[in-house]
Amino acid sequence: IELPFEGVLDACGIAYSQCATNMQPLIEGATIKRFHAGFAARNGVVSATLARHGLTGAQNCLEGRLGYYNLYEGGDYDPANLTTELGQRHEVLDVAIKPWPSARDNHGAVEAALILADENDVNVEEISEIEVTLSPNAFSLSGKLWAEADGHPVVEAIASAAYCIAVVLLHGELVLDDFMEERIADPQVDQLARRIRVGLVPGFDDPVMLAPQGLKLSMEDSRVLERQIGVLKGHPSRPMTDAEIERKFHHCCGFSARPVSNARAEEIIHAVRNLEHLGDVRELG
């Protein structure tokens, strides 16, 4: 396969993403990040297919001398965690669901903007200053100034608190359509995003937590509108409602590579609601 120099670098980066998922594509604004989950799913299917045809793999791949736990975790693991409360504790119930299609790292600020805009009927022309505050972890990804975004526009927009807040304040929502390149190029959104200052939550230095996050709008009439989000919406302790999840699913269906009618979407929702009664999981396909 003939590739130019830049193509060779891209190929190396794509190969790296298939070794193990990593944050480097986000730092560089590369689109390969969108494939990480797909690679994992594909590799699982390929691995099962190869095993069925007789290819052998390292069977002590977790606890072996060079197995995952020792090679990547430095031997710091407790196998009992895999079997404790087996059949009683279901970790899938504690999975967070993203309400909005931006990076999770700016969801608190997005929610704060939605709340302030809804409660105060905010007119962007009456805003003098906009300040977003993020935790250190969230700031590391979503704190870049919009004027400094120099990677792929879609990736930069997804990971930009400034862009996402600008969209919410102008349009009152944040949906997949807002991450199409023609939407990102909207000069009104661009101008507002460039005005937004993003900083750190004062006095908060936890390197892991994505929240708290906050937003402050200083209005021309001297009002100051503020909202802080302590737990991101969609977290198991603040779950989305069934109606919110279904609304998001319907919207995502509009971006499917294969068209999904509203009727078919409702059939899928019904099947998921009654998953334990399905005779064949292929009914979800």
Question: How are the secondary structure elements laid out?
Answer:
Elements (H helix, E strand, L loop, with lengths): L4 H15 L4 H5 L7 H17 L15 H5 L7 H4 L23 H14 L6 E8 L1 H7 L10 H6 L2 H11 L9 H4 L2 H9 L1 E4 L12 E7 L4 E6 L12 H12 L8 H12 L12
Helix pairs in contact: 6-9, 9-11
Task: Write a concise synopsis of the structure shown.
With 285 residues, the chain is of the alpha+beta class. α6 (107-120) runs parallel beside α9 (161-171).
Question: For the largest beta sheet, what order do the strands appear in spatially?
Answer: 2-1-3-4
Taking the sheet with the most strands, its summary is: 4 strands, mixed
As a percent range, the share of helical residues equals 40-55%
Distance between the termini: 35 Å
Low-confidence stretches: none
Q: Could you tell me the number of beta strands?
A: 4
Characteristics of this structure?
four-stranded mixed sheet, single chain, alpha+beta, 42% helix, globular, 285 residues
Written account of the structure:
- The chain is 42% helix and 9% strand.
- The longest helix has 17 residues.
- It is α+β, with helices and mostly antiparallel strands and 285 residues long.
- The relative contact order is 0.11.
- The model has no long low-confidence stretch (mean pLDDT 90).
- The chain contains 13 helices and four strands.
- The protein has a four-stranded mixed beta sheet with strand order 2-1-3-4.
- The chain starts with a helix and ends in a 12-residue tail after the last helix.
